[in-house]
Write a structure and sequence with these properties.
heterodimer; A: 157 residues; alpha+beta; Ubiquitin-like (UB roll); DNA polymerase, domain 1; 2 domains; five-stranded mixed sheet; 5 helices; 5 strands; globular; B: 268 residues; Uridine Diphospho-n-acetylenolpyruvylglucosamine Reductase, domain 3; Enolase-like, domain 1; 3 domains; five-stranded antiparallel sheet; four-stranded antiparallel sheet; 14 strands; binds flavin-adenine dinucleotide; binds FE2/S2 (inorganic) cluster
Amino acid sequence: MSMKPVTLTLNGTAKAGFATDGQNLLDFLRRGLGDLSPKYGCGQGTCGACTVLVDGEPHLACLMLAEAAEGRRIETTAGLAGATLHPLQEAFMDRFAAQCGYCTPGMLMAAKALLDRSPRPTREEVIEAISGNLCRCTGYEPIIAAILDVAEGRASA
Amino acid sequence: MAVTVETHPTLTEAAQAMARGDAVYLGGGTGVMRLINAGVIRGRVLRVTDPGLREISLSGETVRLGAGVTMAAVAGHRDLAILHPVAGTIGGPAIRVMATVGGNLFAPHPYGDFATALLALGARAVMAGGGGTRPVEEVLRDRAGGRAGLVAAVEFARPRDARTFGWHKVSRVKPKGVSVLAIAAVLPREGGRIRGARVAFGAMGPAPARAAAVERVLEGQSLDAATIARAAEVAAEGFDPPTDALASAWYRREVAGVHLRRLLEEMA
Ligand SMILES: Cc1cc2nc3c(=O)[nH]c(=O)nc-3n(C[C@H](O)[C@H](O)[C@H](O)COP(=O)(O)OP(=O)(O)OC[C@H]3O[C@@H](n4cnc5c(N)ncnc54)[C@H](O)[C@@H]3O)c2cc1C
Ligand code: FES
Ligand code: FES
């Protein structure tokens, strides 16, 4: 199987690796670059657990060819926290917005994309932003509340 | 056999490479990547890097959308307001930044919402490699046999009056959900009478298709309660909708008229 060199920026750091032909970005990030924060749920674009930001826009990493990420700026949950947690992470804890936690990395990235673009979204905009992300545990309300907390500056951090 | 991805600078070159043997074209990949991930697509996969495929241009009333234009680009374009409700309900935001206009023309049932709207708008497909233009209707008909060829762009005339375009998507999940069925209608009026009615259904057959019986009922009439009732009666005529996880064929036929009536009442 042929291998393809891929260079990209992952959470602000230049990275290079070899992708196998036809490999998706999710698999490349996890196996190739060792970033296990984006999750593999369905591999079909339906669950959103693999959501990462590509040049600031939310993308389903399982539906993107790894080699198509050449030269692009990728952000994952692993890059959210600095010295302290990201306000979204704090708010998710405060609101108990993660139970099993499998959807959480995707939810966080979808929420980050929204807040980066529109820091004061309405509830409807929050729902729209996470509409491609499934959660089987929380019933969504705590997630929506957490995102709105950050938007309204109520989250600690 | 594993997947071999070939990258071509232009669609014309991809079309030539396609002619050299079995290959799958990768647009935004929201459909193709699923099949690659599942091991269903093997062998050659062709992708094109030409940024020109993502161009949106408007000259006069003519709109041209490159095949690589995404649903997010359509939903965010000021001058394409009539298509915002169509593009804006295709998947969630992370689908829309990848899902393309070209891919939607070939997306299998129950997908094809954008293609349904293009069909009602009387759009033409600009074929790759100087292959001329063909009605989207023909592309949708020929796609089953894989004989449609690569599409470079679609073109259509923007309705002069935005109110002559109507869109109604029925889905079980809000705000994002796949179509149980979708209806697009263009009903231009002259002196209160409908002239040149075009009505298309999505998810009511193997590919989006025009509702000829409905168009016949509407043509030359004013959009009053009696006409709407007659159109609703014949809504499912000529359709043999599939049964899938979203709805049975029976259900789709039963509710087609109900939803058509709602759309027409909105447009009246
Ligand atoms: C979670 C989810 C939700 C979705 N929701 C919807 C929805 O609500 N409505 C809807 O309509 N669709 C939906 N889709 C389906 C799909 O995302 C869209 O139909 C999309 O527009 C397909 O475009 P693409 O560029 O991703 O296609 P690709 O996956 O790249 O290609 C799809 C097919 O089109 C062919 N193709 C692509 N471009 C061209 C071209 N230029 N010329 C010739 N052939 C071409 C490919 O070879 C392939 O056969 C959904 C998909 C997912 C995963
Ligand atoms: S793993 Fe990508 S959407 Fe489910
Ligand atoms: S917390 Fe379990 S899926 Fe969301």
